[in-house]
Design brief:
Elements (H helix, E strand, L loop, with lengths): L1 E7 L3 H8 L5 H4 L3 E8 L8 E8 L2 E13 L3 E7 L5 E11 L2 E12 L1 H5 L2 H29 L16
Antiparallel strand pairs: 1-7, 2-3, 3-4, 4-5, 5-6, 6-7
Helix pairs in contact: 1-4
Amino acid sequence: MAVRHRLIKASPAAVWDVLADGSRYAEWVVGTASSRPKNGQWPQQEASIAYQVRLGPFRLGNETVVRRCREGSVLELEAHAGFLGTARIAIELREWGRYCLVIVDEHPLQGAGGALHNWGFEALIQLRHRAMLARLATACEDGERRSGPFSRRARGGKGASHA
């Protein structure tokens, strides 16, 4: 089970805003070239995003489904990766002073990914998570800097609507 964490220098609300915006999925998920809504209202339970993964000249279409959502703090996803099967990715946000501690926990559920899962595969997932959390931090911290002291969020208003 690959578990990794990162302290992101943004509020939990700012991090949630990025996670809850399905159009930004490809911005922080490593290996994803583009994403678009597929079913439902992201990030509500059972909503899904279709995305493409580029492997050299090839593009593979995949899907990620929300299996559990506690708005502002927990997002659990089931990623469908074609012949590799499915994986559970749980993202937890914890307030850490004025920042956000993000914890990612991923493990295979079905298919070849589960059969191939070993310490080497685990190491690759850890590297992927390190890069993914760095990308998420960049997206969130840049947004927090842009929002400034007079933004709606800084005045106590809610973040962007995701309707």
